[in-house]
Amino acid sequence: MKRTQRCPKCNGRKLWVIDTFRVPGESAAGAVLPVVTHQEQSTGRFSLGRSVPQGSFNLWLCDACGYSELWAEKISGLRHDPAAGVRCVDTTPDPEGPFR
Ligand SMILES: [Zn+2]
User: Fold this and answer.
1) Ligand 1 centre from 4 Cα, in Å?
2) How far apart are CA 27 and CA 91, in angstroms?
């Protein structure tokens, strides 16, 4: 939807975009819905021992049928941490691999 500017379900062309999707919170504006609620922050090899929310979402919504998509952004701080339920599945081919 974001790429084609059309709804993939009904082909609708009137779309709403809610930048930085929020959920009800303590402030009137609500709270930003993070991609990961708390992930330990690190700088290079060293963990800072501080957990912070990571990422946010933009919501794309079709005016005609209501179909919606969430697109994550600001995810450069995500860390592969299976114990915390955050896994990176990277199938990018190795540029030094045998099929260059
Ligand atoms: Zn639609």
Assistant:
1) 13
2) 41
Quote the pTM value.
Answer: 0.76
**Ligand 1 centre distance from Cα of residue 44 (Å):** 43
What residues pack around ion ligand 1 (CB closer than 5 A)? 7, 9-10, 12, 62, 64-65, 67
pLDDT digits (tens, 9 = 90+) for 88-97: 999 999 888 7
| Residue-level pLDDT at 14 | 98
Assess contact for 28 and 64: CB atoms under 8 A. no
Ordered by start, the domain boundaries in the chain are 15-84
- Looking up tokens 């709270």, which residue turns up? 31
